[in-house]
Amino acid sequence: MFSISARPALVLAYFTYFGVLGIFVPYFGLFLDGRGLNSADIGLLLAIVTASRIVGPSVWALVAERSGKPLTVMRVGALLAAIGWLSSFADYGFWPLLCGFALFSFFWTAILPQLEVSAFAFLNDDTRAYGRIRTAGSVGYIVLVMLGGWLFERYGSEFLPLSALLFLLLLLASLFLLPKVSVSAELSTATVPFSKLIKNSVLLRFMLAALLLQMSFAPFYGFFTLYSRDLGYSGTQTGLFIGLAVAAEILAFYFAGSLMRNRSYRLLLSVCYGLTVLRWSLLAGMADNVWWLCFSMLLHAGSFAIAHSCAMQFIQQFFPKKLRSRGQAMYAGVIFGGGGAIGAYFSGVLWQNGNGAALTFSIAALLALAATLLALTLPGIKRPA
Q: 5, 218, 339, 383: least surrounded by Cβ within 10 Å?
């Protein structure tokens, strides 16, 4: 099978994976609104779809671990996700949409945890190299966010099904370019049982803080484009706002390795989570001012990019090599699945078709504050250089 060297192939895989999310995440709320769903229905659908990410990562990680074929797992996941996505082309109401997107989301979870594990294996746990390659994902995201804003203004929310499907197919093609990763050598020994590791108090505090932070992101991911529209911003302006956030994310990912060197998780996470408190507070009270809104978007560099890089490195260092796939899957399932589902559901309840927007973002700020306080309890251990 044709393949290219690991780093260019990883760049393509991250670019296309997050390119799909660049269409899906910002514009999915608008798409569902265009299909006639109210905010409570949107929140419920997002919650149920996101909940499929709780179990999915662990299921696929177990398959990858037992088979020793993470690339095959990713490829099968991308193919089945594309098939599930086909349901978006039909308009038969809430339940068919729910079933189709739940299938898409479940198979989608096969990709990223295995991609992260494979990337660190290819790169020999080089955080700097990972951060720079991971910027390709941010570039893919920003390109598709900007394109999505333009398409939305011209074609309405129904641009989403075909656009996302095209990038899903590009993602599938990019996964066939990845060279084989040797998992037998990487996964040969494990001295501590997984069941014992997940009871560690440091891991539990880290996970709870990350869960609260992810819950706080739910109104931004699910309703920001609707919020921006209700404030009078155009689709192109909304795309520019999100693009500004992702531009800050790209710079942060590029320098993440240097920034994280010899700094503790307690310092890094508490600062990043604290910036998130400020970010949601600004969206709650000052989003009608374009300059404050732009400033809040720049905070994405810390609240997402550095926080995510730190979390990935924490998982890589906390779990032995044999258990990293399950560690990444647990993180993805609990944080992105559980935190995203809980946050999406309550955001939909609180949003009230835009009338509860300020309250929703204020509660998000309180969740981020609780995450900050938990992060301050982590041990002040220096990361290795």
A: 5
**CA separation for the pair 372, 13 (Å, rounded):** 32
User: With 80 as the cut, is the pLDDT of residue 3 above it?
Assistant: no
CB of 334 closer than 8 Å to CB of 207: yes
- Would you say 20 and 170 are in contact if contact means Cβ atoms under 8 Å apart? no
The correct CATH number of 194-377 out of 1.20.1250.20, 3.40.50.1100, 2.60.40.10, 1.10.1740.10 is 1.20.1250.20
Average pLDDT value for residue range 343-361: 90
- Would the pTM count as exceeding 0.85? no
The answer to whether residues 200 and 348 touch, using CB atoms and an 8 Å cutoff, is no
- On whether the CB atoms of residues 30 and 225 are closer than 8 A, the answer is yes
CB 272 within 8 A of CB 307: yes
The token pair that represents 288 in the structure block: 């009608």
Amino acid residing at 113: P
Among 155, 222, 215, 196, which Cα is nearest to 320's?
196
